[in-house]
């Protein structure tokens, strides 16, 4: 286990009507919750054996007994504010605690693999920032070796502009960055492939 590397996971508690709300508008809150539980399980499978420290940040209260086993994952509650403020606070705490390579992911990407996450840490050996672009114009992963607050400020979160705005910041700050493969986040019914649609009876 490498103490210098930290993986941050931003999640919501799986509560009916409070997760995947854009998806729920098309398929209903019950199915949206099923999809989210499926995403959580996938993210756990992808991350649980990675040789890095892991910290789950919850929106809406820490759950002691859940899919994130206490033996593998540390747990905290997300800070106040918009997504950028919450991510910035998590990165700031990580660097204050002595971590030198910090990567954040959500729980929305079924295409994410352990290899892609470990590639992010590898890229941080030769770049200041690594980013995994999502097909919807956001990103599914962000990593850095020290805190760059500008990357979390003045963004149109949850829109197709987040990735491009972040790249503009990186270029303006003259930061070296690496790009990971472009993957799909699951936010709307169009993001579900045919196999998943059938499995959820859609």
From TrEMBL:
Q: Name one Pfam family in it.
A: DUF2064
Q: Which SUPFAM superfamilies match?
A: Nucleotide-diphospho-sugar transferases
Cited InterPro entries: Nucleotide-diphossugar_trans (IPR029044), Trfase_1_rSAM/seldom-assoc (IPR018641)
Q: What is the protein name given in its UniProt record? A: Glycosyltransferase
């Amino acid at each position: 286990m490498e103490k210098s590397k930290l993986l941050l996971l931003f999640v919501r508690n799986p509560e009916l009507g409070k997760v995947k709300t854009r998806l729920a508008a098309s398929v209903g809150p019950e199915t949206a919750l099923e999809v989210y539980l499926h995403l959580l399980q996938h993210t756990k499978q992808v991350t649980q054996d990675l040789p890095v420290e892991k910290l789950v940040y919850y929106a809406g209260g820490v759950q002691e007994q859940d899919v994130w086993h206490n033996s593998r994952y540390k747990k905290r509650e997300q800070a106040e504010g918009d997504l950028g403020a919450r991510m910035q606070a998590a990165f700031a705490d990580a660097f204050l605690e002595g971590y030198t390579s910090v990567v954040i992911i959500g729980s929305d990407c079924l295409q994410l693999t352990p290899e892609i996450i470990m590639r992010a840490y590898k890229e941080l050996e030769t770049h200041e920032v690594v980013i995994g672009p999502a097909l919807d114009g956001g990103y599914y992963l962000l990593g850095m070796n020290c805190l760059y607050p500008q990357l979390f400020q003045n963004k149109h979160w949850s829109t197709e502009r987040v990735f491009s705005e972040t790249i503009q910041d990186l270029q303006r700050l003259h930061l070296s960055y690496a790009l990971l493969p472009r993957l799909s986040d699951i936010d709307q019914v169009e993001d579900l492939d045919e196999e998943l649609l059938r499995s959820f009876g859609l």
